[in-house]
């Protein structure tokens, strides 16, 4: 996933209604009508949100087996896994940086009961 696609994905998911759609589709495929009803959105508003999610390939659509007029929407979990992978990389980076910082602080902080060599000359740093 490119950084541009990743940014657009997070931007799309920053909308609470789209997040709710993703949550609902994470449990089972649904029609646009079901999603609109469960989120309290109008059909036209739901259509706009679904279009954004389809363009980002976070969801797919297919025809209902019993009624070809009904489109069923499903989550594409692998696209969310791409986001998760990026978040895992960022988290690992920060964990390494924080661990290095902690180690630096622990090395530069005097232990209890031992005088700090930097201030042992009359309270002034040497």
TrEMBL record:
Region (Disordered): 103-126
Keywords: DNA-binding, Transcription, Transcription regulation
Domain of life: Bacteria
Record-linked InterPro entries: ArsR-like_HTH (IPR011991), HTH_ArsR_DNA-bd_dom (IPR001845), HTH_MetalResp_TranReg (IPR051081), WH-like_DNA-bd_sf (IPR036388), WH_DNA-bd_sf (IPR036390)
Bias (Basic and acidic residues) ranges: 103-119
A GO molecular-function descriptor: DNA-binding transcription factor activity
Domain HTH arsR-type intervals: 1-98
NCBIfam families: HTH_metalloreg
Protein name: Winged helix-turn-helix transcriptional regulator
Protein's organism: Microlunatus elymi
């Amino acid at each position: 996933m490119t950084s541009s696609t990743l940014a657009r994905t997070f931007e799309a998911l920053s909308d609470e209604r789209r997040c709710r759609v993703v949550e609902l589709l994470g449990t089972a495929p649904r029609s646009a009508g079901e999603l609109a009803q469960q989120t309290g959105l109008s059909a036209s508003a739901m259509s706009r949100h679904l279009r954004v999610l389809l363009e980002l390939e976070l969801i797919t659509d297919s025809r209902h087996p019993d009624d070809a007029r009904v489109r069923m929407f499903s989550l594409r979990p692998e696209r969310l896994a791409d986001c998760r992978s990026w978040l895992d990389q960022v988290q690992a980076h920060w964990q390494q940086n924080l661990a290095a910082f902690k180690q630096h602080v622990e090395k530069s902080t005097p232990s209890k009961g031992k005088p700090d060599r930097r201030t042992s000359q009359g309270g002034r740093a040497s």
